[in-house]
């Protein structure tokens, strides 16, 4: 339960989702359940995009990622938690964010990851701009994200 | 005091950051937004829907009625879209 | 949404959790969210085990895994779903089960994986026997698993 | 009709499977359990708490009041612990 069981990485470089999961899972005999959530840059036929740029507020992003990660870790008695969040310009299909939780049982692992994602959506200072063939636009915050967070209050 | 701007606020105001020296009667975040709007139409437009303006004082997210105190940095930004 | 978007594997061999996740994630530009759940053989100081043996009813296990996977896929409008479940004798730390979901948004990806795990716990014909220094015993079904399932009814 | 046993039921009854020929009046899963228990104390013990006995008829999970019909295989097993 040491604080070192929480890792937060804010980076522009891409990462390998599966390699990160395997590193996270190694040496974990006391854990029965692991959940990995990966958020990806999405391009659909209805909204085809060329790239997505994540602007962020560096100092606040780091401290908010750490604060929310600590809240999830403690609330769900997790064994281990890692949060990776990228910034900069990303292509469709690239990973934006990955959250990994390790717990004794599945309920805590699932809920820890969900809680963290729900809080990141509205509490981490990132702003997404999508570039498509027709121009650029800032992705609006969703009211669904506010209500997802309310579930935990 | 240093002010930072992010995302579409940064684009609309055409600046990343700036130094400001508000008069003494400007005590809260909201009053600073009023004062900036008085002097500049671009701010008046950008700040017209205050529910879309989030703020952080010395890297701590705060409400509009928070007092500026001796803070060194105030950031203005749209609702966050992390994750 | 083709049925081929659902893969079910029942196997005694181990698997590489991260490599499976990466294979699952490849070529998925229309997806915004992926969840991987990995269930692991757990050995704790309170209940140290040497190994776990999963007995199963082969024909029924395959059909139940397929049935539950299809239910999750349809109910949460998933883009893709893979379920891997092992049988035989496993060492502590080894993966038992892995469920991967891919969806447009995070809520469906999380809930699809959770639904599937909740239904597998009580609806897939596997029985776990733990071997410890003091002997062997069958793991009892948990009433918590019945109530986890009720949430979706 | 072929009967299969799994997990601790298999161990307690000391068999993986067997062929049985119940009399005509045995029509449901529950009646088959009664009939097996009449003839063998080991079954009586193993089936004493019926809430712990789950059944599948021709690879379909069924309740104890299900009719056997022309099914070829009946499986008895404890509550499942998958996943």
Verbal overview:
The complex is a heterotetramer, with two copies of chain A (153 residues) and two copies of chain B (83 residues). Chain A is α+β, with helices and mostly antiparallel strands. Chain A has a single domain (3-150), classed as Alpha-Beta Complex (Aldehyde Oxidoreductase, domain 3). A four-stranded mixed beta sheet of chain A has the order 1-4-6-2, with helices on both faces. Chain A has a four-stranded antiparallel beta sheet with strand order 5-3-7-8, with no helix packed on it. The mean pLDDT of chain A is 94. Helices cover 35% and strands 33% of the residues of chain A. In chain A, a hairpin with a 2-residue loop joins strand 7 and strand 8. The longest helix of chain A has 18 residues, at 58-75. Chain B is α+β, with helices and mostly antiparallel strands. Chain B has a single domain (2-77), classed as Roll (Ubiquitin-like (UB roll)). Chain B is built from three helices and five strands. Chain B has helices at 7-13, 29-39, 41-46, and strands at residues 2-5, 17-19, 54-57, 61-62, 73-77. In chain B, strands 2-1-5-3-4 form a five-stranded mixed beta sheet. In chain B, strand 3 and strand 4 (61-62) form a beta hairpin. Chain B starts with a strand and ends in a 6-residue tail after the last strand. In chain B, 23% of the residues are buried. The model of chain B has no long low-confidence stretch (mean pLDDT 96). The interface between A and C is large, with 38 and 39 residues. Strand 2 of chain A pairs antiparallel with strand 2 (33-40) of chain C.
Strand and helix map with partners:
The complex is a heterotetramer, with two copies of chain A (153 residues) and two copies of chain B (83 residues).
Chain A: E1 6-11, H1 17-25, E2 33-40, E3 51-56, H2 58-75, E4 80-86, E5 88-90, E6 95-103, H3 106-123, E7 126-132, E8 135-138, H4 143-150
Helix pairs in contact in A: 2-3, 3-4
Chain B: E1 2-5, H1 7-13, E2 17-19, H2 29-39, H3 41-46, E3 54-57, E4 61-62, E5 73-77
Parallel strand pairs in B: 1-5
Antiparallel strand pairs in B: 1-2, 3-4, 3-5
